[in-house]
Amino acid sequence: MSIDPAPWDGHRLVFIGGMHRSGTTLVADILGTVPGSSGLRNTGVPMDEGQHLQRVYTGARGRMDRWAYAPEAHLTEHDATPHAARELWDAWAPYWDRDARFLVEKSPPNLTKMRYLQELYPHARFIAVTRHPVVQALAIRKWAGLRTGRYGVGLPRLVGHWVHAHEVFADDAECVENLLVVRYEHLMREPGDVLGRVAEFLGTPPIPADAVDVHRSDTYERAWHATCSGVLRRAAGHLRRAGRRPWRARQAVAREIADPALLPRYRREIADRYAARIARLGYDVDNLHDAAPWGVRALSRRS
Fold first, then answer.
1. What are the boundaries of the signal sequence (predicted)?
2. Suppose 101 and one of 36, 173, 198, 270 were both cysteines; which one would form an S-S bond, judging by CB atoms 3.0 to 4.6 Å apart?
3. How many Å apart are CA 6 and CA 87, to the nearest integer?
């Protein structure tokens, strides 16, 4: 008896995951422009993320400082059901160019679901994008409310959430066969080298390095080591650049004033509570610009 081929046969599915504000959208957008590739487009959901188009699993439900703690956020091969692969394909396929060879799906919570997705699509490729936990937490502030980090309050909670999610991922990564970890810091510093490895890993045509708009996290470095020096000058600059978004300028001014008072305490708390665990995941709590190469076995929480 012949078995009908699955509709995704003949394609290479590429799943991208990582914490919010870690560079997952950047990587997905770059891959979406490669000849023969297609990302989800014109979906009408936030950031064109596949998690919002399906009802098979729970996406990043909850606040930015807690979604990975939910039991349903971590899925493995044991959670796969017989029809899940087809149901997900039916939810995503209308938004891909199905003439493309490489079909890209990006959702941050893929970080803790790679074993599950591998069970559903055994020939898929997986890319995890990591970014320094302090930089990621500071970047989240632009979205956050008062309790989740807008003015420094909640930053240890955001960093702890990053650590938990990446420890779950580090353990799972030992079971994921086709996995590439992209350090955001390396992508910014050596885009040609990193994108070359991505192309080789996926089997795509070469990806030009100028696809990356290289920038550094200098503003986050300044905030992390905040002092009162220059506060008024920087605050005035925010107001001058306010344009049509005065509320955003007011938030930035409030952060400039609050950071020197709040962040030293939170720097000490984060260092005391998480520095060792962050180091096992390849980052230095005080060096926001670099990362160690990913090494799964060295990074497992059991090591």
1. none
2. 36
3. 12
